[in-house]
Amino acid sequence: LGLLDRIGHDAAVLIEWGDRFADALGGEGLWVWLAYASTGRTARLEARGARGRALLTRVKASMVAADTRR
User: Fold this and answer.
1) 31-36: long-range contacts, CB 8 A cutoff, minimum separation 24
2) Alpha-carbon distance 70 to 42, whole Å?
3) What's phi and psi for 41, nearest 5 deg?
4) Residue 46: pLDDT band with limits 50, 70, 90
């Protein structure tokens, strides 16, 4: 797909149904699965590669910071 060439390495890209062409997306990133739950929706995050781990660390830190502001 050449997404990194088109948008750069510091951008976030959300691709629906990305698992259908996972090889073309490359091995690194933060994969997100959304599902219906009894109280709304749930999200499962999976870090893939160093870039994915770095992104997940940032997401976790943001969630903790938001929780402490309540």
Assistant:
1) none
2) 21
3) -135, 155
4) very high
| Cα–Cα distance list, 50 to 30, 55, 57, 65 (Å) | 10, 9, 11, 23
In angstroms, the CA 26 to CA 49 distance is 10
For every residue of 3-49, DSSP letters joined together read: HHHHH-SS-----TTGGGGHHHH-S-EEEEEEEEETTEEEEEEEEEH
Instruction: Give the pLDDT confidence score for residue 56 in this predicted structure.
Output: 93
CB 41 within 8 A of CB 35: yes
CA distance 37 to 12: 26
Global pTM? 0.70
